[in-house]
Amino acid sequence: MFTASEDRQRWSSSPGRDSALPLARHPEEVTLRVSSRDPWVRAGLAFSLGMTGGKFALRAKMRSARRPNAAIRQPALPRNLRARAFTLLEIMLAVIILGMMSLAIYRFVQANVTAMRVSSEADAVEARYDGLRELLTQQLQSLPPGTAALAGEPLKIDGHDRDELTWFCPAGPGLLTRYATGDFRVSLRLRARDAKSRQLDLGLLRKPKEDTAVSNEHETWVRLIDNVGTLQIRFFDSRLNTWVQRWTDTVTLPRLVKVVIGRTDATAPTEITVPLARMPL
User: Fold this and answer.
1) CA–CA separation, 42 and 33 (whole Å)
2) Residue 224 falls inside a structural domain
3) Per-residue confidence of the chain (281 residues) as pLDDT tens digits?
């Protein structure tokens, strides 16, 4: 029996055999080629040899224990797990898409809120004009004829119409008071907001009928509509069949009273026409 080193010496020095091949030493594998005519090779090492082109090839893979990262090397992830991960480009695209969607939703909501606010403000202004129409209709249609209860004077300041409509009425909801007593002299007119402002407000100036004092001690101002440009009042005289600017008749009342309000928030003025008597067909 020979040892492994003696076997290698015997194989390399045996006459009549193929010349010995050097051992291919590698950190991970050793390849040994020997002749197939050697009987001890066939008998002793046949379990680890493979036939390739008439030669036996022995490949012994030896893993080195001296590798520094052999103990801490992490196993590679399976391919199915690596395929499920997201790349940085995909994450960036997702963030950009979410940002664009959020911006679009914010602009949509902001536009709707702005539209609702503008619409509510416009509805509030129109409601004031509708209330003024109802107030004038109720007051003027309740005036008795032949008592000089209605008068109108045309006024113009700085080239703008600032007419005034005056009537006498008792206290009540139409006068915007509840507990007052006696009759009042009511004027529909424009008035400056304050001494330094050029903004005009439309309202009612109330004063007791029996008060003949020159002072404004008992006058009350009720503001109805803010920021009005002009006020034009016309009376329809059925005897002349035309509109007149002034009404001073103490016996009869005009057939129609037309109030035209120039608005600063709209290009077209608001027109209110109140019939005081039935028009003939």
Assistant:
1) 13
2) yes
3) 444 445 545 444 444 444 444 444 444 444 445 455 555 555 454 444 444 444 444 444 444 445 555 445 556 656 655 557 788 999 999 999 999 999 999 999 999 999 999 888 888 888 989 999 998 998 888 888 777 788 998 988 888 889 999 998 877 766 666 667 778 888 999 988 887 878 899 999 888 888 777 777 778 888 899 889 999 999 999 888 999 999 988 888 899 999 999 988 888 899 999 998 765 54
Is the alpha carbon torsion for 242, 244, 247, 248 positive or negative? negative
Residues 133 and 269 in one domain: yes
Domain membership flag for residue 212: yes
Please give the tally of structural domains in the chain: 2
49 and 178 housed in the same domain? no
What are phi and psi for residue 56, nearest 5 degrees? -105, 130
